[in-house]
Design a protein that fits this description.
The chain contains 3 helices and 8 strands. By secondary structure, the chain is α+β, with helices and mostly antiparallel strands. It has an 8-stranded mixed sheet. The two termini are 19 Å apart. Bound molecules: zinc ion. Zinc ion binds next to β1 and β5.
Length: 136
């Protein structure tokens, strides 16, 4: 498996409108608009930082994964996403190594990326996302 970089940090917020202020107004990151991924009950907003991005996550339903995360742990970093060269290959390798996966096969995330989550029990509590997509 080839990991290319940290693609983004997923940060759970109660509200993107309220949550983006710090990142945009104080840190000066550029807000590039938001996108709702209905299947994951989440609206995402990306703010590029060099070669990586901050991804703000706002739940669209009380039973969505981001809502559940905030209920349990409050707002904050929810996942770390690594860009991989080939996500199918990476998942096959992880399965071979006995790593617990949330997604056995990739699904389509924000921006049309192919994404898959590893189970936090396999990663000392860090929700790890793999993603494969074109671009910077
Ligand atoms: Zn993500």
């Amino acid at each position: 498996m080839k990991i290319l970089k940290i693609d983004h940090l997923g940060i759970a917020v109660n509200s993107i409108d309220a949550g983006r202020k710090f990142w945009e107004d104080i840190l000066g990151l550029r807000f590039e608009g938001s996108e709702t991924v209905a299947a994951q009950k989440v609206t995402t907003a990306f703010l590029p930082v060099g070669q990586s991005e901050v991804e703000l996550l706002e739940s669209t339903a009380p039973d969505g994964p981001v809502a559940k995360f905030i209920e349990k742990r409050g707002e904050g970093v929810q996942h770390v996403a690594f860009r991989v060269e080939n996500i199918e290959e990476a998942l096959a390798e992880l399965k071979d190594k006995g790593v617990a996966l949330i997604d056995q096969t990739p699904r389509i995330g924000a921006g049309g990326a192919k994404i898959a989550f590893l189970h936090p029990k396999a990663t000392a509590g860090v929700l790890v996302e793999l993603c494969e997509r074109e671009g910077k």
